[in-house]
Amino acid sequence: MIKMLAFQTLRVVSLEILGSSCNLLANNVRSITKRCSPRSLQSQILRPLSSHQHNLKVPKVPTWEHVPEEELPRPTKIPADLVDRLERLALVDFRTQQGLECLEKAIRFADQLHVVDTSGVEPMDSVLEDRALYLRDDTVTEGDCAEELLKLAKNTVEEYFVAPPGNIPLPKREERAAILRHSEF
Amino acid sequence: MLGLTLKEVSLAFREGKISPTELCRKCLNRIKKTQRLNAYITVTEEFAMKQARQSEARLLQGIPKGPLDGIPFAVKDNFCTANIRTTCASKMLKDYTPPYNATVVQKLLDQGAVLMGKTNMDEFAMGAGSTDGAFGPVRNPWSYSDSYRTQGGAASDSDWVITGGSSGGSAAAVASCTSYLALGSDTGGSTRNPGALCGVFALKPTYGLVSRHGLIPLVNSMDVPGIITRSVSDAAIALGVLQGIDVRDSTTVPAPSALAELPEDFDVKNICVGIPKEYHAPGLSEETLAQWSRVADLFEKAGARVEQVSLPHTQYSIVCYHVLCHTEVASNMARFDGLEYGHRSEMKSSTEVMYASTRHEGFNDVVRGRILSGNYFLLKQNYQHYFVKAQKVRRLIADDFRHVFGSGVDVLLTPTTLTDAACYHDFTQEDNRTRSAQEDVFTQPANIAGLPAVSVPIALSRRGLPIGLQLIGPALEDKKLLCVAQWVEQRVNFPSISDCDNTQESRKDPGVTRREQTSAI
Amino acid sequence: MAASSIAARELLHNIKLIPYYQKSSCLFSRRISTSKLQCSSQPPEKSAPQQLVGVVGLEIHAQISSNTKLFSGSSVQFLAPPNSSVSFFDASLPGTLPVLNRRCVEAAVMTGLALNCTINKKSVFDRKHYFYADLPAGYQITQQRRPVAVDGVLTYSFLGGRKRSQVMRKNVHIKQIQLEQDSGKSLHDDVNSQTLIDLNRAGVGLMELVMEPDMSCGEEAAAAVRELQLILQALGTCQGNMSEGQLRVDANVSVHRPGEPLGTRTEVKNINSIRYLARAIDFEVQRQTAVVRRGGAVLNETRAYDSKSGETVAMRDKEGLQDYRFMPEPNLPPLLVFEDEASLPAGVEAGEAVLLRTLRARLPELPSVRRDRLVQTYGLLPEHSFTLVNEDGLMEYFEAVMKGTSRDPRKVIGWVTNELLGLLKQQDLSVSHSPVLPAALAELLELQEAGCISSSAAKQVFQEMWRSPGKAALQIIQELDLGLVSDAADLHRICQKVVDSHPDKVRAVRSGNQKVLNKLMGLVQKETKGRADPVLVREILQEKTS
User: Fold this and answer.
1) Spatial separation of the C-alpha atoms in residues C468 and C482, rounded to whole Å
2) Domains identified in chain C and CATH numbers
3) Is B166 labeled as catalytic in the residue annotation?
4) For the whole model, what pTM was predicted?
5) Which residues of A touch B289 (CB under 8 A)?
């Protein structure tokens, strides 16, 4: 236990993306550091176990720290045309700088994966990867419910769902912004 | 009466101490009284009374359906309920009424349980505070408890604390005694997290043990319906009803054993409790750490083998979760386009314009943000770099657990959350993603690996707010996990919320409460 | 560890793995295909200037013939009222989950076996994302990473050579067969500027077959698709009707000079018959050849075939924007296929599993085997066996006729491929709609065999049977008085009349020109409307001209 603690070099969390919460975390870390000086720990160990004593199996200080910025790959900058492409593919819209920042932060957070050595590791789709998929008999059990379904739709014609005209790509970003301005909820 | 456990109420029914309609009315009244918690999006008063009358008739005829007959329950608003609107706390579905019941809802109704309403949550379950829904944030019932008001130094109503999430409404419903049982969903901790912060018992079963059919998905490969109750044995009863193969969900697995009663005298002497050292993460509060240590002591003193173990990839689990969650969100949310159901924009110059404006109007920033980044991770040029990489890390995390359980550990003991509940004001200073990364840090590894996990309320913090600890078991060892959880429950004497009936009725010995608090420091 | 070095390490790792993924058979068949392309229409001549030749690959969507959809229990039916055959899952209601239809898996596996594919014991499903009004979930469930069957070969033949009577045999490599969902249907209502959506077809099971670019022209592609159609129909895994959309074929076409890298390809869509397939490909090969000869560049684009003009026209593309953002379908554990009952893991019932041994045993006689059998059993020519098998129902018709007659099969085949098929084609009827049933034709042939009618009378009777369905041959013979005249006195009288009125011909015979005897015989048959017993007539005429 002492050995383990001796190797702990507590570093103030440097991940910018954690924002102001870092301060909060850092404060805690510091306060714990203060409380666990080797001497006080030693005296605790020598003392007989009591209900107020810390259980030795439970680490007294954090055993890891957030990945330092310098170990991460260079931050991804998202060019405007990529945001536009993503918005067109996903049919969601941001338009604001805030949206772009949110995306860049999400990518930055994900970048921590790249410090993990995964060579030789197979990707895992599901925890049920070794289980045989259930197969159903080919008998009709459902489906005759047009009325029930159509009443869920806002717009129908006879027994059809209705969409606006198709095969028209989404307009460019600027036009889109104009259209969506009118559709604020 | 409202503070009783499900088991106790079931007994009271049989003894004629109270009838299902009386109890239902009491709960409905209490829902009204606790309205400021904003725990429910929809209260199904008429339906509940109708069911209660039917249950009463069965009781009078001496043919109750089982331990759940007449028991009021609540359901998170992302489980489909036939003819009852199911909103996912989103504008997208605010008027959506599904034509079918989720399997878990149907199973409870089939047992005669009485549905009180649909509970509030983060929009599409994306969040860890129950603060990001279209129907406003949920308030933690403990915000109004004596313990928090007096010891926490809460001065005004604006100091209320969050429930945690995303199943905050369900946890609040059970904690505030408006339901005996509530369904939550647990993708990265969404049941256990509010369970811990609201001082109730929360179970996330093994992935596949409980059907997801009718659960509007967040992350299909990790979602599990969760169970929130005021006691471990209540959760065991509910799991006994809910578990098992559902032909409508191809990811369900057969229940390893029938589950009804847990043994009252489970002996921990022969079990090995693992303490994963990586679960002392940066930001863990000293009070939570102290409780973690105390319960480890309890085990040790009772003769269990307590061992420090290592799950080396724990730190990266939340990152892995982040990528896999966002990608599945991007995919799962694609169906919401306004064409067949849900909100539909008035814009109609083209299908794509209608879709884009519908999605713009219907989703909040959190949902749209996850859709955008999820799509980014799935782009052909990023697929290997982010998505497949996350899948590889997923295997490393699952393997960590496999090694530990393979080495003879029966159950892992960890904190559920870093700290007790934050004030709403403080919580919302951070964005949703940052908060989720902090809140889910201890809970999502069990989802990544598909393992059963519970949060057991342990003690109150100096602020007078609940602290919970988590137990994680090997896949399909849900029953054993519950046995261990019950053993802990029996020893920590967690106090029930003091203002449940605005009387002293349900309050436990206040001395117990004080004792818990001193030992927490 | 710096991320870049890890990335590099994984890259190396991947590179090392590549050779294991590529099957030697795959490389082998590619080599075949290249050499075949060189000799596509003309044999290659090294000295000749290199001609541009077409390179054709196909992407085929075959609708699986099943009672219910791929992932839901709603019925598969055509011509049902709109949206009457749509489950909650098909409409993508939130919370619904896919449940795989065993029949669809079996159909894909059987098709794979029939096409000599390797069946993947473990295959997986993926989501392919794009927004379209008739794709309710915003993604299609398909098998992108690991399909149910891979690496097969289709052997097809067509009639080639000078007289188009030579059976040409070729191979096309099948890259993979994957299971996937069909989409719904959009009806564009331009008047009211709206699109009507019918989801009856949404979620119907499809087998997507990818044929490698081993073909060089429309005729080869058409023959390959026809052979596939026959195989699917024999298996019963797909009804294979192209005009009803049960079989949809998109062609990837490019041109290049043999030995040089493949040219830029175009994808030709909207082809709804085999005939149009051949025309569309040939048009496209010619168009691209002209572009290249002009020094232009072929664009990588999607083109639609317009059957009226016989041309392909460029379709509006997604501006290079499309990215399907594939990801594993998380609601479906891997699809496992087992060799036999003995290989089943615990907890899997034999009745629930897909067993290769069982499916192999259920494979019916495939077209190529049928053709061989017809040649061996009946002594037919290969081209006849080809016609019998390739015309829907013709083989069955032929074999039914054979059951009712003792005539030489080589005579019967003439009746079936000339008389019957001729009339069917003339009237655009399928074999199953023939007014003359096999038993009736057999009866007619028996009457001829027994010497009751001459062959020319038999043809008249057949025509009459065609016009009056249900009337027996014997009845028609009597009504039209077409029975063979074998009364010696009658024949003597008629022969005498012919001999008397053609003294010049009689002289010719007498002077040794025996061929003229046949002309006299013809004249006798004319008198008797073909009813005269030829053997007797010959005897009498020989006697009278000697």
Assistant:
1) 16
2) 58-328 (no CATH), 367-479 (no CATH), 488-545 (1.10.10.410)
3) yes
4) 0.86
5) 58, 60
